[in-house]
Design goal:
- Chain A contains 15 helices and two strands.
- By secondary structure, chain A is mainly alpha-helical.
- In chain A, 55% of the residues are buried.
- Chain B is mainly α.
- The radius of gyration of chain B is 19 Å and the shape is globular.
- In chain B, 55% of the residues are buried.
- Chain C is α/β, with parallel strands linked by helices.
- In chain C, strands 6-7-8-3-9-10 form a six-stranded mixed beta sheet, with helices on both faces. Chain C has a four-stranded antiparallel beta sheet with strand order 2-1-4-5, with helices on one face.
- In chain C, helix 5 crosses helix 6.
- The chains are: A mainly alpha, B mainly alpha, C alpha/beta.
């Protein structure tokens, strides 16, 4: 298992780096970039969901805000795209802190509800504020690489999203090995008990919340300059948020590569359905049904199944005499 | 100005009554099963679309669809609870139920969008388009009807909960499942029927909605936000709390609608939601089950 | 020096008055016992002292600092640790991970940047050795026996380096050999300078271990003093036997 657990990620990484040169056409590069984008967002989402157990169905709010923040800075204020991307991400993260302070005052399903309310609210604001967001025609964002044609842009953004995925994975890995991560996991297991041991649960939760928003907003910003055309209905759609949840759940929320695995399965499938079934809404039904199935039959995800510990007692076998000798020590 | 405010107030009370009906169903699911039924508004619009189909196919008054839709939705509710919700591990029930019902809501939206396309649909009846005018205040007939239907249904619901044996069993299951079992209440069955009752109220609500507002497949998301805001403000698990909060927020919405604009009117739900979270997360009008779920 | 002092703590839940004007004073360095019939408000008292519930009225002072409205984690940092009546550990974390959760101070560097440093791990192992469960380091907490979980719970609390330790029924559901071990542990830890407040129903344990005993009945203390005195107090007999 050791060799597999080291070798497989390495193999996947190599394949990923070579991917644009391995596929026959630019459409597949586009699909690959989209998949990597979702993988980065799901891993980011999992910084909150996987560690603390707080499930947010509203993370698409941060995607949309990151996209519009970056787009508006470029279009209205002429800010160069990299700076716009970073400034927008910082602003959205600050907003996430503000929202998080209120949101984490409730737990479990209440929190999920509040997250849904958040994205509904964003939807409302964005559709109402036509002058800023460009209304139904959306916002047009000029490409940062005007000399490249469409296909080459896809390649560039494939690597940009890959870098973002790398950052997200690194963060997740770092948190999982830190005292902070141990505290977050304790919050998931027994929040009140964690607090009685001195863990500042409120601050920890807000931090995880903000961190999870950061990479999602960066993804939104990259999406804005990649696609060039922002439609408020899409970027704030609750579907993006539900993909993040579905992918993480499917792959396994307690694992570093869980969301990535989920994205590798769901994103291409989603693209396939979109093409095979056309522009109808049936892909919503497919996503919904898949979510139902995962929740009912595989709530721990695929990776949990694969890495299940050997069942059996971890308490050593000993005779009564040995036991008593131990107690007398 | 005063007449404008009165207008807003009147409209608010009328819609508040409808909100109260819709939100009470939600409180019921939570109380009975600790399930947050995010799909409730989706079922509302499923009912609205069914009403639309009945109306356009047979040309009948939408309320005549109720004898069909109510039992149908009751059965659907029982089925959903027994076949899906009951299979959830009690471990993480509240959260898993949100994800489960969220999936159901998506599935319903997809089906509606595929069958009916994304364009707005509505049901309009001759008698519903007129208004009653009292002292300078215009009360549209459709909203008056909505209010009375909602009030009647709520009254029936309360009567069932308080007077009937089934209602008693339901309330016992809500308060203490184990104790209810010990006195012989078949809690699994009761939970299923409770769910059925919840969806039956959605059938009524959906028919009413079809009458008063145009709708499209994604309409339910706005309602999830509004209804969730109502039950958080009212206090989770409290049916009365939800009703009170519903009327309060309906009035606020009405007043803001006539003085500012529609977007801000809807925003008020979210403003109240966040204020409640900051000031009193367990809600204002009762609900002992709040916050710790 | 006074360790913990409460003044007139009152708390009701709905119509039930759980704690009714509880005023208690504990001296540092002693092993204090808290006894009383079921429902006399002992655990609620603990919950108020540790900040998990806010009282309707009254104050809690620890080393002369008012900690009544403080959040549970601030109270933990102040130096109060506590175990629970129904032993609470983090079920899906390993024994070692359970030990590494406790936070002593809210210093940014220590919290956010800290990888699991060897110093902390060594400290954790030291406590696990003292409890006799060091061989279970990698086991998931939910796989431990109840007695082992109780020892783990206590060890994890001690990682936060509390000065005052509240134990809620440490002998509950545990075999006699383990009770003896717990008693000797408490005595050793007390000799090292920690103050204890122990809620217990096991009279032998309380009388044998404690320097000072407080008796609760219906939400308030009715007697307090050395074990022998309290045991013969007619009011105590009345409270327990209802005579």
């Amino acid at each position: 298992m050791r060799i597999a657990s080291r070798g497989i990620p390495l193999l996947v990484a190599c394949l990923a780096l070579a991917y644009p040169w391995l596929v026959p056409n630019y459409y597949l590069v586009y699909a690959g970039a989209l998949t990597v984008m979702y993988a980065a967002m799901s891993t980011s989402w999992n910084l909150l969901g996987g560690f603390t157990g707080y499930v947010s169905l509203g993370h698409s709010a941060f995607f949309g805000l990151g996209a519009y923040g970056t787009g508006l800075l470029i279009v209205r204020l002429g800010v160069p795209w990299v700076a716009a991307l970073l400034v927008s991400a910082v602003a959205v993260t600050a907003f996430a802190v503000f929202v998080g302070v209120a949101a984490v005052r409730v737990r479990g399903a209440s929190f999920v509800i509040v997250s849904i309310a958040l994205v509904s609210m964003m939807n409302l604001v964005v559709q109402g504020w036509r002058s800023l967001t460009g209304g139904s025609t959306g916002l047009q964002v000029p490409s940062p690489f005007p000399d490249l044609h469409r296909g080459q842009t896809h390649i560039v953004f494939f690597y940009l999203f890959l870098a973002l995925l790398g950052l997200a994975l690194l963060s997740w890995w770092y948190v999982s090995r830190s005292r902070f991560g141990a505290g977050l996991r304790a919050i998931r297991e027994d929040e009140d008990k964690a607090e009685s041991l001195g863990v500042p649960t409120g601050a920890y939760k807000v931090t995880a919340f903000a961190l999870s928003a950061l990479f999602v907003s960066l993804a939104g910003g990259l999406y804005a300059v990649w696609f060039g055309s922002l439609d408020p209905i899409f970027v704030f759609s609750i579907l993006i948020g539900s993909y993040m949840v579905l992918m993480s759940l499917l792959g396994g929320v307690r694992h570093l590569f869980g969301p990535l695995l989920g994205a590798l399965i769901v994103a291409p499938a989603g693209e396939y359905f979109l093409i095979a079934l056309g522009e109808t809404q049936i892909h919503l039904t497919a996503t919904g049904l898949l979510l139902v199935l995962v929740v009912l039959f595989m709530p721990d995800g695929i990776l949990a199944r694969l890495t299940r510990r050997r069942a059996g007692p971890s308490i050593p076998d000993e005779t009564a005499e040995q036991r008593l000798q131990g107690a007398a020590r | 100005m005063v007449s404008l405010l009165l207008q807003g107030l009147a409209l608010g009370v009328l819609t508040g009554g409808l909100y109260a009906l819709l939100a009470s169903g939600l409180s019921l699911y939570f109380g009975v099963m600790r399930v947050v039924m995010v799909a409730h508004p989706a079922f509302l619009f499923l009912a609205a679309y069914l009403t639309y189909t009945v109306h356009t196919t047979f040309g009948v008054d939408p309320f005549l669809a109720l004898p069909v839709t109510v039992p149908l939705f009751f059965a659907l509710g029982v089925a959903v609870q027994r076949l899906l919700v009951a299979r959830l591990a009690p471990d993480n029930l509240a959260m898993m139920s949100v994800l489960l019902t969220f999936g159901i809501a998506l599935a319903i939206e997809g089906l509606l969008g595929t069958i009916y396309t994304g364009s707005y649909k509505s049901v309009s009846m001759e008698y519903a388009t007129k208004s009653l005018t009292i002292g300078g205040v215009h009360l549209p007939y459709d909203k008056i009807i909505a209010f009375f239907v909602a009030a009647l249904t709520l009254a029936v619901l309360f009567a069932v909960l308080v007077r009937s044996r089934f209602g008693q069993a339901l309330r016992a299951t809500i308060q203490h499942r184990e104790a209810a079992r010990l006195v012989g209440v078949q809690t699994e069955r009761v939970a299923g029927y409770g769910f059925g009752v919840g969806l039956a109220t959605a059938a009524v609500g959906g028919t009413v909605l079809a009458l008063i507002t145009p709708f499209f497949p994604a309409s339910h998301w706005v309602w999830i936000g509004k209804l969730m805001a109502i039950i958080v403000v009212g206090g989770l698990g409290s049916v009365i709390g939800a009703a009170l909060a519903a009327v309060l927020l309906g009035v606020v919405e009405g007043l803001v609608l006539v003085t500012v604009d529609a977007t801000w009117a809807t925003m008020m739900f979210y403003v109240f939601l966040f204020l409640t979270l900051l000031a009193r997360p367990q809600g204002f009008f009762g609900g002992r089950l709040a916050h710790r779920f | 020096m006074t360790s913990l002092r409460t003044e007139g703590l009152t708390k009701s839940f709905g119509g039930v008055l759980a704690v009714d004007g509880a005023s208690v004073e504990l001296q540092e360095g002693r092993i204090n016992g808290l006894i009383g019939p079921n429902g006399s408000g002992k655990t609620t008292f603990f919950n108020i002292v540790t900040g998990m519930i806010k009282p309707d009225s009254g104050r809690v002072l620890y080393r002369d600092r008012d900690i009544t409205r403080h959040s549970p984690h601030r109270i933990a940092h102040a130096g109060i640790g506590r175990t629970f009546q129904l032993c609470r550990v983090f079920p899906r974390l390993t024994v070692l991970e359970n030990m590494l959760v406790a936070v002593r101070r809210t210093r940014l560097r220590e919290l956010l940047a800290g990888l699991r440093d060897q110093g902390e791990v060594e400290r954790a192992r030291h406590w696990l050795r003292r409890m006799g469960i060091e061989h279970l380091e990698d086991a998931e907490a939910r796989d431990l026996s109840y007695g082992q979980q109780k020892l783990l719970e206590l060890a994890a609390v001690l990682m936060a380096e509390p000065e005052l330790v509240l134990l809620d029924e440490p002998a509950g559901g545990v075999n006699p050999a383990l009770i003896d071990r717990i008693v000797s542990l408490v005595r050793d830890l007390n000799a090292e300078g920690r103050t204890f407040l122990v809620v217990e129903h096991n009279m032998d344990m309380v009388m044998g271990m404690c320097d000072h005993v407080i008796v609760f009945d219906r939400g308030a203390p009715i007697a307090a003093g050395p074990p022998a005195e309290v045991r013969d107090d007619p009011r105590v007999l009345e409270a327990y036997l209802g005579v």
